[in-house]
Structure formats: C-alpha cells, structure tokens
Amino acid sequence: MSPRTPAPIEKAAPSPRETMAAERASPPFDVRRMIYAMGGGQRNVELKEKFMQEIERDPLFKLSDIHDLTKNQIRERTMAKFQSMVHYVVNERLDVFTKRMELVGIADPAFWTRFGVHYGLFLGAIRSGATANQFSYWLEKGVLGLNGMAGCFGMTELAHGSNVAGLETTGTFDEGSDEFVIHTPSVSATKWWIGGAAQTATHCAVFAQLIVKGVVHGTHTFIVPLRDPKTFSLLPGITIGDIGKKMGRDGIDNGWIQFTNVRVPRAYMLMKHTQVTREGQVFKAPLAQLTYGALLQGRTAMVADAANVSKKALTIAVRYAAVRRQFKVGHKEFESQILDYPIHQRRLLPLLAQAVAMGFTAVQMTAMYESLTAQLESFGADSDEVETKDVLDKLKETHATSAGLKAFCTWNGLETIEKCRASCGGHGYSSYTGLSSMYNDQAVQCTWEGDNTILTLQAGRSLVGSYSDALAGTELPGGTSYLNSLPSILTISCPSDADTLKPETIDNAWKCVAANVVKNAHGQYEKFVKEGKGKEEALEMCSQERFVAAKVHTAGYIYRQFREALVELAQKEDPSNGVVATLEKICALYGVWSIEENAGYFLKYKFFTPEQMDIITAEVNALCLELRKCAVPLVDSFNFSDHIINSPLGVYSGDVYKVYFDRVRESNPHESVHPYFDRIIKPLLEREPLELDDAEEMELDEEIAEMKSERDEAIKEAKAAKKALKAKA
Amino acid sequence: MSPRTPAPIEKAAPSPRETMAAERASPPFDVRRMIYAMGGGQRNVELKEKFMQEIERDPLFKLSDIHDLTKNQIRERTMAKFQSMVHYVVNERLDVFTKRMELVGIADPAFWTRFGVHYGLFLGAIRSGATANQFSYWLEKGVLGLNGMAGCFGMTELAHGSNVAGLETTGTFDEGSDEFVIHTPSVSATKWWIGGAAQTATHCAVFAQLIVKGVVHGTHTFIVPLRDPKTFSLLPGITIGDIGKKMGRDGIDNGWIQFTNVRVPRAYMLMKHTQVTREGQVFKAPLAQLTYGALLQGRTAMVADAANVSKKALTIAVRYAAVRRQFKVGHKEFESQILDYPIHQRRLLPLLAQAVAMGFTAVQMTAMYESLTAQLESFGADSDEVETKDVLDKLKETHATSAGLKAFCTWNGLETIEKCRASCGGHGYSSYTGLSSMYNDQAVQCTWEGDNTILTLQAGRSLVGSYSDALAGTELPGGTSYLNSLPSILTISCPSDADTLKPETIDNAWKCVAANVVKNAHGQYEKFVKEGKGKEEALEMCSQERFVAAKVHTAGYIYRQFREALVELAQKEDPSNGVVATLEKICALYGVWSIEENAGYFLKYKFFTPEQMDIITAEVNALCLELRKCAVPLVDSFNFSDHIINSPLGVYSGDVYKVYFDRVRESNPHESVHPYFDRIIKPLLEREPLELDDAEEMELDEEIAEMKSERDEAIKEAKAAKKALKAKA
C-alpha cells in the first residue's frame, strides 16, 4: 500500500446565474422579434403578457403550493376561479377570451377542464343541439353567466366511451305526461367520468337512447337537472358518487350518475336536429353530421395546447441543462454544463424543433377550423347543392386533419414532458419541479375528445379514401394534395448525396414516403376487400397500415406547415434580425430528425440510400450543436413568465438551486411533533434484539422425552399391577 | 323531414364473467406448467405463492386504499411493515428472502425502497467498506435487526448526482481530537434525496471528500449519527428537512441534510479500502474497483423488477381488453371485445412478448451476478495474477451487461405501463385502476442506481472497447461473442425471402446489425481520435452512436437469452403440454417485432430487403393474431394474485365493472356536508346576473354636461359681476 496522490481542490465554477447570463450574451437573433414570430404577432404577444400579469397577481392563481393541496382544497380553488373568469367570458370578445383561456390552460389544466365542461361541452351541446326557442330558454335560465346553474356533460358510461351509439341510458317518451323518463338500466350504464358531477354541477346534458312508442331512435341529448341550486341537495331519482383520485387534474370533480326514472319536460330534449311531437311523432333533419363541427373545437385547441405544454417543459429542461454542471471532460477547467453534452442536445433540441413546428401548425389548424365555422354558420336550409358539397368536403378535411394532429401532437406533448422530466435527473422526480404533474395532467389529453388510437385510424381511413379519390382522378385539396402527383411521387428519390439536405429534397422525401405508406394501407384494404371481406372488416385488418399512414402523413404535414409559415414570415421580417434564419435551422432540424426517427420507411421506399441516411444523421448532430448555442434565447422566446413555468429548475434567472431549496423548504415546514415516532418508530427500534427462531429453545424434545418416560413408567406400573393382580387371583 | 327508420333493441352480450371464462376454455398449453416455466421452476413458484398468501393476509399490506392516503399516512404504514419484514430478513435464507422482497417490491415499491435503503444501501455500504472490526462494531450496535438504529445513504447532493467524485461535502481529519469533521460547505452541497432522512433514520452513510492535512483524497464513506434513537431529536450540527411530494413512492421519506462541523470518531470512516492512521497517514488499497461489484446488485434486481412490473401491467390491460366491448364490426351479433381488434393486439402483445423475454433474461442476469459475487468473495490478497485478471474481466462484463439491461429494461417497463394504461382508455386515468401509480413509481427506476442515459453510454463505451479487442484478435466472451466473427458477420444477409422468418435468420439479423452499429460507434470514435481529440472528448462526440450501439446490442442480447432459455427448457419439458411451442411463438414475436421497431438499421445494413421487411411486418400481425387466442391464459401464467395486481380492471374473474364500481364507491364515501358549497358555490350561483360593462350606465356624460353648464353659469355670473364692478367704477 502506498499513500495516494492527492487531487488539488477545484476552482469554483461560475455560479448558475453567471452561467445563465453568459448564455444570453449574444443571441444570433432579435429575441423580441422572435417572440412575435412564435407568438402570432405583436398584438397576440402583448395580450398574452397582459393575461400573464393578471393571473400572476390573482391570489386564486397561486401555483407554488399546488403540489401539497388535498383533492378537496384544489377542487375548491378551481371553483373559486370561476368568479373572475365568468366576468371575462361575458365581457371579452370571443377571440380575446379564447387566447386568455389558452394561457390559463397552461397554468391550470384542471380549471381549464372544469371551465370547458360548462362553457365548451354543456353550453356547446345546447348551442349546437337546441332550437332557437330552447336556446333562449336556457340563456334566460342563466347558462351564460353561471347564474343559478352550472352544467356538466353526461356522455360516457362505465362500459361505453368511444362508441356513443352504443350507450345504454334511455330517454323514454311518456305520452301521458308529455315527459321524458331518463333511466340508467344497469351498473355498466352508469354515467362515468362526468366532470363537475361529483360536487359542482346543477344540470347535465345527458346522452341517452331516445325511445318513443317502444322504438329506439338512437342517441340524443336531454338537459336533466341534478341538484337544487339553492341547497345542492340531489333531486329525486338522481344518485351521484365521486370518481375520486385520478392520475392528474384533481381540480375537476369527476363523478358518476345513475338516473332512476327521472322525469323531465319534453322540451328538455334538444330538438334542433330531431323533433318529438306531443303525439310522439319523430322527425329527423338531414345532414346531422354538420353538428360534429362543434366537436372539432376541442381538438383544435388541443393542438395548440400540445405545442404550449411542450414549450413549457422545454423551457424548464433547457434552462436547467444550461446551468447544471456534471463531470469534467478532458482538461476542461470546470465541470461541463450538461447542455454541452452531445447526448443531452440530442435529448432536448429535436423536441424543441418539434414544439416550434407544432406551434406554427396549430396556428394554421385554428385558421382552418375558424374558416369551417364561418362556412357552417352561413350554411342553411336555402344552401344549394354546390354549397352543401363544399361544406361537407371542408368538414371532412378539417375532421381528418384535426384527428391526426390531435392524436400525434398530444402524444408528442406527453413524450416531450416525460423526456424533459427525465433529462432533469433525480430532480425531475420532485413534485416541485413541475414536470411530473405536467405529465399526469397531459396524459388524459391522449384519451378524451377522441382516443388517440381511434383518431389515428380515422385519419388513416380518410387517407385510404383520399388515395382512392386520387386514383379516380379527383383533385385533392390541402394536406393531401401530394397525392395529386400519383404515381410519379411514389418513385422519386434523392437525386444525389449532395442534394440530401436541400429543403426541397426533405420536402419531397416526406411527400414520397407519405404517398407510399398511404398506398400500402390502401393496397392492403383493397386486397382484403377482394378476398371478400366486408368494408369495415377490411379496414380493421389494415389498421396497423392505417396507423402508419396517419403517422407519416402527419409528421410530413407538420413539416410543410412549418415551412409555409416561414415563407410567409420571410416576407415581412427584416433578414438582419436573424429570426427567419434561425427558424429555418429549427425547421431543418425537425425535418431531418423526424426522417431519422422514421428511417425505416425512407430506406424501404428508397427515397434515401443508407449513405444519405448517414448524412441525415450527421446533420441532426450538427444542427443540435448549432442550435445549442442559442438554446436559452430560444426558450426565452417561448415567452412564459416564471409564474406560468412554476418550476424552480426553469427560472429565468438561472438561480435554480436557491429557488428549488427555498421552494422545498417552504412547502415542507418543520413539524415540531413527529407524526408517528411514538406510535411506530420507537417501539420498532426499542424492541428486544431479534434472535434466530430456534425450536430447541422451547426444549420440546426434552419435554417429549420426559412425557415418554412418564408414560413408560405408568405402563410399567400398570403391567406390574396387572401381574400382581393375576398372581393374587 | 321524414320519420327515421328505428333500430331494433340489441340482444345483450355475454357478461364480462362469461366472456372471461370463454377465454380460458381451451388454452393451447398446460397453464400450471407454463407458470413453472416462466416462474423459474416449481419450487420458486410455490415460494412466491406462499409469499403472496402471507402478504395478502397481513393487514399492513392492504393495498386497496393506498390511493387516498396522505403522505404521512403512507409513510407511517411503510415503517410499520418493517416489524414483520425484519423477522424474515433475520430468519430466512438469503436466496429465499431475496425472492420475498422481489414480490414485495411489486406490491409496494415504496416499502421496498425504504427497506432497501437500510439493508441494501446503508448495510451494504458497511459490508463492502468496513474493516472486519468495524463490521462487528456495527453489527453489535444493532444494524442487522434494526435495533436502536435505522440507516440512510447520503450520497447525492443538491448539485451533484451521477458524478460522485465531484461531491462537495467534506470529511476533514482533526488530528488534535482524532475525529473527522463532516461539513456541508454550501447550499448546493446539501445532501439531497436521502431516503429515510426526513423522518425515519438515525444514522447516515455519508459520502464526503476526505481531507487530511489539507490534502483532498477523494470521496469516502463516513457513518454519521443523525438523531437520538430514544427521542428522535436531531444531534448537534445536523439540519434536516423534508423533500416532500414526489412523482411517486411517497411511502419513502426523502429528506435533505446539512452538516455543520459535525464530529465523528476516526473509526466511523469505513476503512477497508483506505485507511487514515492516528497520525494522519493515508493508505489506499489497490483494486478498489472491486467494491463496485456491490453496486451491481441493485441493477440486477431492477432487470427482474422491470419484467415483473411489465407483466403486472399487461395482466391488467389484457384481462380488461378481453372483457371490454366496443363497436360492432360488420354483421357481428355483439360489440367486439377490444382484444379482437388487430390494432389492440398490436398495442399489447408485442409488449407481452418483450416482458416474457425480459423475464428469462433477468434469470440469466441474476446467475451472472451471483457467479461474480462468489468469485469476488473467494478473491483475496493471496490471489494470483490470472485470478485477478479473471475477476476483473468478469466484473467488466457483468458491469457492461447489467448497465445496458438496467437501462433498456427499466425504460421498457415504463413504456409498457404507459401503453397498458392508455390501452384502458379513460379508466386507465383513474387512480383505482392502478396503472397511473405504477407509472409514477416506475419512473424513478430509470434515473437512480445509474441514470439510464449514462448507463447506456457506459454500455456503448464498453462495446467500442470490445470492438477494438475483437479487431486485435482477442476472443470475446458471452454477450459480445458475435464480434468474434468479424468481419464476415458485418456483411451477412438474409439468404432468401423464404428464409426470412427462420429463427437462425432472426438470430443472425440481430448479430449482423449489432456488429454494424458497434462498428459505426467505434469508427466514429477512431475518427475523432485521429482528428486529435482526447479520448474522453472523442467518446462524447460519438455518444449518439454509442447509444444506438447499446440499444441494438441489448435488444439482440435479450432475444438470444430468451432463445437459450428455451433450448434449456425444451430438454426438460414434455412437448405435448404446449409450453415450449407457445414460448417459441412468443420468442418469435419478440424477435420480429423488435426488428420492425428498429427497421432502419436492418435496412441500412442490408440484412433484409424492403420486401423481406414486409414479410417481417406480416409475421408480427400473424403472431399477434395467433397469440391473441391464448392471451388470457398467458397473463394467467404470470401468476399474480388479485391482491398483488390491485386493479379492478385486472381481476381474475373478469367482473371488472362491478369490482371497479365498488372500489370507487368504497374509496369515496358520501360526504354528508358539502365541503365548499356554502363558501364558494352558493355565492357564485346566487350573485346578480352579470351584465356587460357599460360606462354609460354611470351617466357620466350627463354629469359632465351638468358640471359644464354649472361652470358656464359661474363664468357668466363672474363676467356679469366684473362688468357691473367696472360699470360702477
């Protein structure tokens, strides 16, 4: 053994604040202009900043303590927030208020949900399903201002979610009393997951099978009072329970409802599309599918939300990675910032590019939805055939596009949050660093408003249809217009290695490969149909291929939306401010990284050679390294206040350890009496030292031996006595 | 408008119980034999069943209520469980007890953690770091039976996790008093995440920089008393706080610790490997890396745990999918079981195959670790050079293998839980269905005991080294032996389309592609070294390539382990019971599905043609369809009691809706007084109807007009007065 050569004491590294300041020293773009570019222009940015300031100063929007509130505390706070928000919903222009709620949704997803249940789902059901007179009636009852009523939305049942047509609850017309009888026939028909039902709703929009004169007419909507608004006691025939703890969004009180022969006036069935007369005649309007337009609003909003939550998570992860130091590499003076590690850049920067891409896509998606809404509003009984076809086409395209985007963007958001959380190492596991609850809140976005897997299959089904249309010579609009170039689009490829990274090559790559996977899904479908399968069964059998088609198509769609937005931006942005140039790099990273992620298809359809795929991978590495230099100014450009970020690891200043330490200490004040020392720990530590179980200690064998000898003795004695007796006889 | 053609009322589908019974009617294998095959043989299975019965009857292991306990309640229950478990740890053979804990870990991961902190980390640190006399001392103090002491493990700090060498806490030798002074120099040096520190530990194994005579000697371990075991009051110089809420595992009380000039006797430094004499001389033993062997136990256990949690999650998802019905396809009589949808099979069955593959791999990994341990125990000062090289080689291989397996298996486990949760639709979001807390508990497995990303890079670094060795002609053992076939292994390919699915083709595919990605990582590394980069920097620069190498290598490794286990099993299993035949299908599914998942590499290195990849995809579909038929008997073969599964959706009987409904109702009893109606809801609903803000209502303009006319009047009067005055003058 020999004395070890000692290491010198290290020179202290720059402080986190100093490190963070250095990251912002020379951004390659004008940060304010970038904020405008990513935030939809100066006006929208200023509105957002106004909203951020307002909610930061509103004590009900305190966010720092949310991780330690009980379920009831957080539900109570959720309802308290209605007070100020109702003011805005009544007074603000709809487009302004929509932006306000977009922000509120990032800060407090559970409140956004409770609010959306009343204004989006309940009021939305009335708006789209009520006749003019019915609508006036509910307005007068107070639905708009939450006066005397708060709504919930009774669609899903314990045993039925996605298949609305299969719901079991019944709404039976009683001609005698001119009423509907709403009834839950079995436990599995219990209305389930109903947000607001457990504690906060007075009325419910109930989806039930309309039964008139013994005939079932399918699912319709009935407004059913649940509670007396003055006392909140349940009305006769209403049984309600609390769904209790959930993975996330505990601020919303989901409940279950059973109806036992509950009677409502006939007028409480929403009758815009189907009418039941006093005599029990049932009339149904054509084009009922136009009402589905309303369902698309939620999906559209969720695309924007997915971009926003991704940006929020990335702000935390990138800022933390910029100041966290770990390991010295080679002869460096200090431990390295973890953002300097290529693998860490790989973990975060492609996701950053994807978040920006989703952000620009969301703007286009919103515009598409708004244009559809305008068209639907001007559509009426006097519209001619051309207008009808037009609006139906638009609806179909908007539906398919929003289905694919909702699914893949909410999945992307969830994955981004998880990867950001894991990139923070152990600290990502603390509730106070915010990413774990973001994950738990986001998860449900992938399930509700159309389960993601089902939506991808709908998008895939639509693509199979588009492929048929294209083969039949129909000119396809918008997102699927690349199929107009069939069949040549299927067989194009990268002209040469030198062309690999050109934007038009990347663009063609996505179009070619998307066309091929769509062709594959279509081909499988046709094959099964030719084999004699029914249409639905054939579609089921090619569901994996439909899924792949939707996945590749949507990734390429997002890339194109990003590119188109940049073309527009380049027309108004001064090139010297570096905004467009930087965004072009981000767009390029999104393009090449998502090609790498889907490498199998690009090789299979021979758009790229293996050598070109190496060029792609090298470019991902190079762009990560390039964007790493401005990663902090980029997340600064996402423009979230520290209050909205609500994570010590993501504070603007970079002073992460101090803020984190203070937050943990403040959230867990010293308990002067140990909660369970006397009851549990003291008896545990003070019990007698354990010894090995040892049956011998009981001296059982000695005992048995003793018993045996006693018995032997007794037998001997008995024998002797017998003998003596015999002898006597 | 015309009356709509009504639909007939549907015939009721078979009940969930009936549906589940039908799934078990004719399994293609002997379920009990399958249980033995998957569970490591009859003896292990019977032990597991004994443990399951014991904990099910232990009231402390009640699991049905865990989702509604507060943090302190769940921590208290965690500590109460020690009482019975200490009995077993002292009385049971180590191998039996290890199996017991493997099961307990699935039922209650937080207890497993608290228990492991004392017995695995704290006692483990003493066992591997103490001299013989020191070890006896701590045994006598009561460390084995938890008498008068409970330990925690003070490694990580607020600003340092993975880089143990960079820890800031100091242990300075004071020659005057023959003591060490343990000190926390700054907030960022605060010991952080220390499990057990917040409320339950009396002693801590503190990692600190050893400083003797002003010279830093690197990180060493000191046993530091924290609390008086009689009163639990903190000892002088100890500051402790609670880390509070975490993403999961709230049963363990993580805390932070600051030491302020805390003095411990010199003998409290663990001195097996480094000794500090009374006079302040420091001696260090060679081969200190042998102590790292102890670290591998945790990783090895986590591979088995990843397989187990995956199987538990899949039991829930598969049983639920078997009884859940949604949508009618074509002319079917009833709504379809969702497990009958090809896309649902695709979501679950490849993950089932992966879980089984990980299960068999874990058995082999454990055997490798145990053989290393035996070798390390027999290794001593008298071991010769050959023995030394041998044990170091073994250590290196076990380290690299366990690093890759720990990382990818814990990630696989996390992903499996999430996909199972999402596959349950909305109900997956309820806490009571169990998958959300499984996710939250599992997430940390990817970070602690070696952050997964760092471990993959270590595995990748080892592969780069193995490639160099192979080029130099060294014969490689075990998992990397395919590199002995360089260079021919790099360029083999599938001989023909007809050979695509042969097991030996799949096996060669994995070897070929793994060899290529390892070669690629090695080549990048060599390139950077040739360009003049230092070794560490060159390794960093090829980290993405190392990551890919580790990923592909490990997937192939798992496939081979599975195959080898089947060869062994085939020798002892009666072919007529169907066990091996079914497992071969599962192995085949794992093989082809993971090829499909990594398609890009198999195409890039031209092992398969695009057409052969289509054959692979078709085979994944076909095997999913095939295994779907016995999916329920397969998850039955995972052999978990309903108590361990702890999810209404995964009950053996299939009666999911009743059990789920009852669980939710029992967990959320009716509250007779609404917790916040009077305070929040009543004032909200009863306030005056809101009106649009309207400044005119204030009649400000009239007021202004009035004020103006008054002022005009006054001016007029003043003028008149002036005029009159003037006239007078």
Automatic annotation (TrEMBL), chains A, B:
Superkingdom to which the source organism belongs: Eukaryota
Active-site residues annotated for this sequence: E449
InterPro entries in UniProt: ACOX_C_alpha1 (IPR055060), Acyl-CoA_ox_N (IPR029320), Acyl-CoA_Oxase/DH_mid-dom (IPR006091), Acyl-CoA_Oxase/DH_mid-dom_sf (IPR046373), Acyl-CoA_oxidase (IPR012258), Acyl-CoA_oxidase_C (IPR002655), AcylCo_DH-like_C (IPR036250), AcylCoA_DH/ox_N_sf (IPR037069)
Catalytic reaction(s) noted: a 2,3-saturated acyl-CoA + O2 = a (2E)-enoyl-CoA + H2O2
Localisation: Peroxisome
Segments forming domain Acyl-CoA oxidase C-alpha1: 292-464
Sequence segments annotated as region (Disordered): 1-24
Subunit structure: Heteropentamer composed of five different subunits.
Family statement drawn from the similarity comment of this UniProt entry: Belongs to the acyl-CoA oxidase family.
Protein known as: Acyl-coenzyme A oxidase
Source species: Leucosporidium creatinivorum
